[in-house]
Amino acid sequence: MNPCARDDATSEEMVDFVAQDGVRIFGTHYLPKVNEPFSRAVVFNAGAGIAARHYKHFLRFLASAGIPVLSYDYRGIGISRPRSLRNFSATVEDWAELDCRAAIDWMKARHGSSLIFGIGHSIGALFFGGPPNAQDLGGVIMISPHTGYYGDYRREYRVPMALLWHGVMPALTMILGYFPGRWLRLGDDLPKGVALQWAQRRKGITPSRPGDRLGALVCRFSSLRLDAVMITIADDGFATEAAALRVQAMFSGLRFEKWAVAPSDVGLSRLGHFGFFRRVAVGLWQPIIFHVLRERSPEATVPMRIAM
């Protein structure tokens, strides 16, 4: 199925909603152009520092299959960015506990009769472990999940990424009051709090001390009880198998099914960390539709590898 040919089967509306602490979050609601109740709906979490608009082809594809989707930008990112990002207050915990919670609440209010799934890319997949209402989801799909720990990266990326995250990032952030990701062609600019959290981490995410908000967030990851799919990409330099195992250990309460994807599955030579969402990889998207739309039963199964 070609997503470009199906754009006329969907509509999009800009939406906004307010997080529990009063911060307004902005997003896009992708809707199928059919007048019927929807049995399924999706809340989509982008990767850290990636504006949600970069996933639009994949999200339109979901909507064209009859699945409404809400994508949104975390506070400080994309269309949720304030007029000035300098010293804007935002942390990873805010994104997971407050922004993600508000997005799920909005989708439940809009599509209360639908079974709502969480789909997340990269570090954004982890944020479904943050809000208390995540337990109301019908399931979670994690695409290329990782924690941002450079030690899990492929060997050739470890030294340059360690220098970037732990040297360049904090230095520029302290000077500018935010991390200039756009200028460095590393996605969107990052709020100061998020950037410094990333820079200060030199090992996998673990609870650090009593009363630590990030540590409490990580502890909650293990309490989430849902069915989950984890999709790994063979040539992903960041979300490697080591990273996937780390995420799986953190979310010990999830019932994981693992799908392995290779560029050759869709006739490509390379996918990497972002290639799954390129239009040329559309052949990888249909199994997600099948998984979201399938009837839930004890006998239902999902293949361990995507069959093309």
Structure explained in plain terms:
The relative contact order is 0.14. It is globular and about 55 Å long. The protein is an alpha/beta fold and 308 residues long. The two termini are 13 Å apart. The protein has helices at residues 56-64, 92-110, 155-176, 192-200, 213-221, 241-250, 286-293, and strands spanning 10-18, 24-32, 40-45, 69-73, 115-121, 139-143, 178-179, 190-191, 227-233, 255-261. It has a single domain (3-293), classed as Rossmann fold (3-Layer(aba) Sandwich), CATH 3.40.50. The strands form 2 sheets. The chain has an 8-stranded mixed sheet with strand order 1-2-4-3-5-6-9-10, with helices on both faces.
CATH superfamily: Alpha/Beta hydrolase fold, catalytic domain
Order of helices and strands: EEEHEHEEHEEHHEHEH
Instruction: Supply the helix-strand structural class.
Output: alpha/beta
Shape descriptor: globular
Output mean pLDDT: 89
Number of strands: 10
Question: pLDDT under 50 segments (min length 5)?
Answer: 1-6, 297-308
Beta-strand percentage range: 15-25%
How many structurally independent domains? 1
Could you tell me how far the N terminus lies from the C terminus, measured between alpha carbons in angstroms? Answer: 13 Å
Tally the helices. Answer: 7
The CATH C-level name is: Alpha Beta
Rg over CA atoms = 18 Å
> Which strands sit side by side, in order, in the main sheet?
1-2-4-3-5-6-9-10
**Second CATH tier, the architecture:** 3-Layer(aba) Sandwich
CATH topology: Rossmann fold
Helix content: 25-40%
Main β-sheet description: 8 strands, mixed
